[in-house]
Model the fold of this input.
Amino acid sequence: MRLKRTEPGMSLNSLQLRHIRSFLAVAERKSFVDAAGDLGVSQPALSQTINHFEQVLGLKLFERTTRHVELTEHGVRLLRKSGDLDAELKSYFRELQLLRDSVGARIRIGYLIGTGVQFMPEAIRQFEEAYPAAEVELLEYDFNRPDAGLRNGEVDCAIVRPPLGIDDVEFEFLMTEKCIVCLPDGHPLCAHDVLTLSQIKDYSFVAAPGAGVWRDYWLAGEHMAGEVPKVVHEAATLDSELQAVATRKGISITAESTASYYARPGVTFRPLGDMKDCEIAVGFRAGGSPRVQEFVKIVRQVARAIADGKMKAPAARL
Done:
């Protein structure tokens, strides 16, 4: 069956790749609804594309009813000629996907200072090995920015310690750590092997700058029954925090890895027995690039392997 060309000046030059892809999708699925879903377009838009294709050719390619879609004789002939083209197109788009995902891809990874030191080197190594063409940019944030660039979209993903109070970011749990107390050498609390919140609450504290849920967490705010520890000094980095503790400005609460990787003369560490373990997570926004998803997958696997004892963490600094 031939169709009358209703649009003047219509020629084969007006055809685009979307016409071919639309025809092949409907021919394969025998359904405009299903084909539209595969192509990621609306059903009316797909129908319009097919109608335009038929008008340009002057041929009816499909017999449509309310229940069935079948190829006409001309449609069958065109499909037969398009078999190799379909395979070539799929191969071409696979190559485009690989090209987009590897060449020139850049991923910005933020991290809160002192966070993820157990697994970050290995995760980065594995990611760069898997995607050698990807450009990895590591951005370190101090305690002024515990969100590590997530809140303002400065990074694609970040290794952080919740809670952060950010609603539009997804967090994937990686591992937990014990909470510990940093004390100056010779402090009366050093006599105890394990400390409790009731033992430390009346002492002066070194805390992160500013205010917010993250600072409150490291002052054990949720465990203090409304009591607010006295903060006498603010520190934006681990080095400045430990220096303040060593010079007896106050005590602080930190994560177990601090004792392993940032130990220094003048500071004694003791476990805080009745404070729940702190978490390390990777934060990212939904719908990010495939490279972000791949990094999240790798860092999750590495962190889990180290937490389960299947992989060794880097040696502590002496």
The chain is about 40% helix and 20% strand.
